[in-house]
Amino acid sequence: MATTPASPSTNDAPETPAVGKGRATPTRAEQEAARRRPLVANTKEAKAAAKAELNERRARAQAGMAAGEEKYLPARDKGPQRRWVRDYVDAGWHPAEFVMGVMVLVILASLLPTNMMISFYAYIVMMGYLVIAIGGMILLGMRVKRKAAAKFGKDRLERGLGWYAAMRSLQMRFMRLPKPQVKRGQYPA
Q1: How far is CA 37 from CA 42, 44, 47, 59, in A?
Q2: Distance CA 82, CA 175 (A)
Q3: 111-127: b (≥16 Cβ within 10 Å) or e
Q4: Closest-CA residue to 144 (of 181, 95, 100, 90)
Q5: What span, in angstroms and rounded, lies between the C-alpha atoms of 127 and 130?
Q6: Is 88 helix (H, G, I), strand (E, B) or coil?
Q7: DSSP code of 68?
Q8: Enclosing H/E stretch for 132
């Protein structure tokens, strides 16, 4: 039998296999140093980015609260009953929402140097208006509780709806938060 010569090797790799991972194992101190980073970013760019992101979240929350979105409302304003009360109060005219304007007029009248009687009568008018406003708030609170009990059921009525309505009616309409969602005269069903 004839023997064929051995074919040349096509593999240029050394005959001994590589041992290990090809690099030295880092020490514990080196590993901890590599993981170490500040808890709060010190760079100006990181601080500016964090501030911009916080401002954007605040603006989104403020816009959501003004629009009456449920997830942005504080706990005192959440729920269908509170929404109904807000709509009921915003639909009407209430003497309490003009209290601040009357007080400003009384202060201006009391600053007039002409006559002390003008100041006295302005003060009397303001006290009379406060009595009317407080009476209107009490009547509004009772009316809201009665109508909410008829709508939502007396046993499922939330506490504090009358007080909530009275305090909302005390604010001037353009300053209310969440912003009014109904026009005047559009009472909720």
Answers
A1: 10, 16, 15, 31
A2: 18
A3: eeeeeeeebeebeeebe
A4: 90
A5: 5
A6: helix
A7: T
A8: helix 116-152
- The reported pLDDT for the residue numbered 2 is 59
Closest CA to 137 of 178, 165, 160: 165
Give CA angle at 90 (149, 167), nearest 5°.
75
Closest CA to 176 of 106, 103, 91, 75: 91
Query: Which pTM value belongs to this model?
Result: 0.69
Instruction: Find the radius of gyration of the CA atoms of the chain.
Output: 37
DSSP 96: G
143: phi then psi, degrees, rounded to nearest 5: -65, -40
- Six-digit token pair at 161? 């709806």
| Cis preceding-peptide flag for 8 (omega within 30 of 0) | no
- Six-digit token pair at 58? 């605040």
Instruction: Give the count of alpha carbons within 13 A of 132, CB side only.
Output: 13
Q: What is the pLDDT of residues 89-144, one digit of tens each?
A: 999 999 999 999 999 999 888 887 777 888 888 899 999 999 999 999 999 999 99
Does residue 187 have a pLDDT over 60?
Answer: yes
What is the end-to-end Cα distance of the chain in Å, rounded?
Answer: 109
